[in-house]
Design goal:
Elements (H helix, E strand, L loop, with lengths): L7 H4 L12 H12 L6 E5 L6 H12 L15 H7 L6 E5 L6 H11 L9 E6 L6 H12 L5 E7 L7 H4 L3 E4 L5 H14 L3 E2 L1 H11 L3 H15 L2 E2 L1 H8 L4 H13 L2 H13 L4 H18 L13 H10 L4 H18 L5 H14 L9 H14 L3 H9 L17 H4 L9 H14 L4 H9 L3 E2 L5 E5 L2 H8 L2 H12 L6 E5 L11 H11 L3 H7 L6
Parallel strand pairs: 1-4, 1-5, 2-3, 3-4, 6-7, 9-10
Antiparallel strand pairs: 8-9
Length: 542
């Protein structure tokens, strides 16, 4: 049994500039410097983990000592210098791990070694990995040598945390910023390696691996090795998501469809199933936000390049995205982002997410609120006939969903067209009627309903809608549903743009008392002894 197994990250580590993945500008600059004999004495390679910093440093060190360079600036891999490098017996290349050799003594030993010229080849190359781990005193000891090294010495410093390096060190180096490996480059490299290893891979499975790698080629190869160990020579999507504990995309497609229909019951059941499978609520929200973002960028050819998916899954996103209005995706993303922010301090994470799912479902059509296009016409007809909105909603709540009856949906007119009015004819009386109609839809939320019915907005000469309120609490409550109010008025008025402004009334005589604190403070102003009475009897505001 052959025990000499090499992981893919080592087995397929590039040995020439040509095979470096995803760093073309940097590779070309280094090759040009070699071809034109314009070598600096110190280089700094910085960037995320697993993007090729140390690999490029080793290739560069091998190439500048090659005695038979190609016309393209590549090492020949046949001369004595190249062979000694390949067999790990080269005395011209020295590697130092600054994470474990970060003291002044380590750097002093390095400085003594730098003075010795190479016995074979032109340059002694010193590769210092994780250089940011050097201590302050070690950096100071290194400064003079780094600025004026012997002509045969070349330093290549590598780090993932450039901001931790002293400016005096940075100013002595040529700096190369390595970027994350592009999604498609990772996919192509994985396909190439899989072909060489006679492993068949579903493209959707490689998509998952590339996403998990997050721009790191080394991470992608490590995950690929895990997948091969689990799946054998046939890597499938289902096996990969099972092994990596990734939630199936089908869940996200299904739950987003329930949002669009407004079917909050189905969204809660899907979330429950996800939790029963052992997935974390935070990971679910993160994945859901990414899914909605992918739908949004897939709607337009100009933004489709931002979508990191290939194959059938990319085609499905483009097809599904056509069914989702832009405003729905934008508001859904905003709500889910807010849910992620407030999830950590929540006492009951499950309930917190469920309430958020109910709000997102309300943005859609059926169930809590049926499709906007269907409601627009029916609400318009109800307003014309004088039917109360509450009666209209109760009556239509018993109707079957038109989609389930098999009838094709048709284009529906807004209330403005149903009444024969244009957006220019929208009057104060129309605004009052639409406002009260919106208030009726909020009847179940008693406090919000009373706030809406107690304050009727005014339509000023500039067409701006101004609503005067008694206190900041009312303003905060209405701002939380600001977009819903604006969309409702837009749908009913036919106006493309609505400007709604909240103002706090300065007339304290009209101010109503809503909270227990407000009522108590009002009573205390009339009777200052009320505090003493409350304290002696140990009373609470309830």
């Amino acid at each position: 049994m052959d025990n000499h197994y090499l992981v893919s990250a080592r087995k397929y580590r590039p040995e020439s500039f040509e095979r470096v993945v995803g760093q073309k500008p940097i590779v070309q600059t280094l090759k040009n410097a070699i071809l034109h004999n314009q070598l600096a004495h110190a280089y700094l390679f910085c960037g995320p983990r697993g993007v090729g910093k140390t690999t490029c440093a080793r290739i560069f060190a091998k190439t500048i000592n090659c005695t038979a360079l190609t016309e393209q600036g590549e090492a020949c891999n046949q001369c004595e210098s190249c062979l000694t490098f390949k067999e790990n017996r080269s005395f011209n290349i020295h590697e130092l791990d600054a994470a474990s050799n970060n003291h002044v003594e380590d750097i002093r030993n390095l400085i003594e070694q730098v003075r010795i010229p190479p016995q074979v080849g032109k340059y002694s190359v010193y590769i210092i990995d994780e250089v940011h781990m050097l201590s302050q005193s070690a950096f100071n000891a290194f400064l003079k040598t780094l600025e004026e090294p012997p002509s045969h010495a070349v330093f290549i410093l590598a780090t993932t945390e450039k901001h931790k390096i002293l400016p005096t060190i940075l100013s002595r180096c040529q700096i190369f910023d390595f970027h994350r490996i592009q999604f498609n480059d990772i996919i192509k490299q994985l396909q190439t390696i899989a072909a060489q290893e006679s492993v068949t891979c579903e493209l959707s499975a490689l998509n998952i691996i590339a996403q998990k790698a997050d721009g790191s080629m080394r991470d992608a190869l490590s995950i690929y090795d895990q997948a091969v160990s689990f799946c054998g020579n046939e890597i499938t999507y289902q096996k990969v998501i099972s092994h990596l504990n990734v939630l199936d995309y089908e869940y996200y497609f299904t739950i987003s469809q329930t949002f669009l229909k407004g079917d909050y019951r189905a969204s809660l059941l899907i979330f429950n199933e996800i939790l029963e499978k052992g997935f974390d609520a935070g990971n679910f929200l993160s994945g859901l936000a990414t899914h909605l973002r992918n739908l949004l960028v897939s709607k337009d050819k100009e933004t489709s390049g931002l979508f990191e998916m290939t194959g059938e899954l990319a085609e499905r996103y483009q097809k599904e995205a056509a069914h989702y209005p832009d405003h729905f995706l934008l508001e859904a993303l905003q709500r889910i982002n807010q849910m992620e922010i407030t999830l950590r301090p929540a006492k009951d994470p499950r309930l917190h997410v469920e309430i958020g799912l109910l709000h997102v479902s309300k943005l859609g059509g059926g169930g809590v609120r049926r499709k906007v296009e269907e409601v627009e016409k029916e609400v318009g007809e109800a307003l014309v006939s004088g039917t109360r909105i509450s009666e209209f909603m109760a009556l239509n709540g018993r109707k079957k969903d038109p989609d389930q009856s098999g009838h094709q949906s048709h284009e529906l007119k807004s209330n403005a067209s149903a009444t024969g009015k244009s957006s220019k004819d929208f009057t104060q009386e129309d605004l009052k009627r639409v406002w009260l109609a919106f208030a009726e839809e909020q009847r179940e939320q008693t406090r919000l309903y009373h706030t809406l019915t107690a304050h009727i907005p005014e339509l000023n000469q500039e067409g701006k809608i101004v609503l005067e309120l008694y206190n900041p609490l009312q303003e905060k409550a209405l701002r939380s549903i600001y977009h819903e109010i604006v969309h409702f008025i837009q749908n009913q008025s036919g106006k493309e743009s609505i400007e709604l402004e909240f103002r706090i009334s300065g007339d304290q005589a009209k101010k109503k008392l809503y909270t227990q604190d407000e009522k108590y403070n009002h009573m205390r102003e009339k009777n200052p002894d009320l505090d003493l009475f409350k304290q002696k009897l140990n009373l609470d505001l309830e």
